[in-house]
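Protocol step 4 of 6: structure prediction from sequence.
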Amino acid sequence: MTTVATTITQATEDATAVTYAARVEHVSKSFPAPGAPGGRQLVLDDITLDVAPGEFVTLLGASGCGKSTLLNLVAGLDLPSAGSIRTDGRPALMFQEHALFPWLTAGRNIELALRLRGVARPDRRPEAERLLELVRLKGAYGKRVHELSGGMRQRVALARALAQDSRLLLMDEPFAALDAITRDVLHDELTRVWQETGLSVLFVTHNVREAVKLAQRVVLLSSRPGRIAREWTVGIPQPRRIEDGAVAELSAEITEELREEIRRHGRH
């Protein structure tokens, strides 16, 4: 791997001049190899990917292929070993775990993000209540985390991410720990919120049907080192259902490609 200057830049241009929500150009990432002093393990190799304004993109791949690593690089939590990353403003990040503060109410968790954004104190509660209503949790402002179901906690986490007023939402398997029915409901809610807000979304998953149900574009990463193996444009009209024939058909095609990547990795 050739080492080049690495950058992570948050665009400050007028919104009309920005043609991307995220732009990843020839990005590679390596980490120290365990048990090999001075050695490096290549995790991502020459990734080039654009997310357009308002686009919903899912990143799909086998465990360990570097999906979360790439998301962390786009979020600015780590630096690439090579290549450059630019985003239209600071992204908001939502994890698999809700990461809510248990000593705060649902509303106060959202207000904390608003305070960090610089929203004036008198405006925080009305905005927190508006965001809770957006994710269909009207009236939950005063509820503690332990009073909320898993799906409700993830809705609060989504509202808190939206409170950052970012144009780009990064989601790292946020529904993986939920039961199938709750996950399916939250797919519909996320699709609705995305359509209502015009956000760009980069969503990491290892669930093929989840990727197809949500995305306008599915990007498959190869097994380590992660490279873009193939992309699919999903032309199925929203709203989609997991059991829809078109969703099942495209999911089967992508699953076969994913299995081939896993088989290829197993031969090395």
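Step 5 (inspection) to follow. Helices lie at 67-75, 106-117, 121-134, 150-162, 180-197, 208-214, 245-266.
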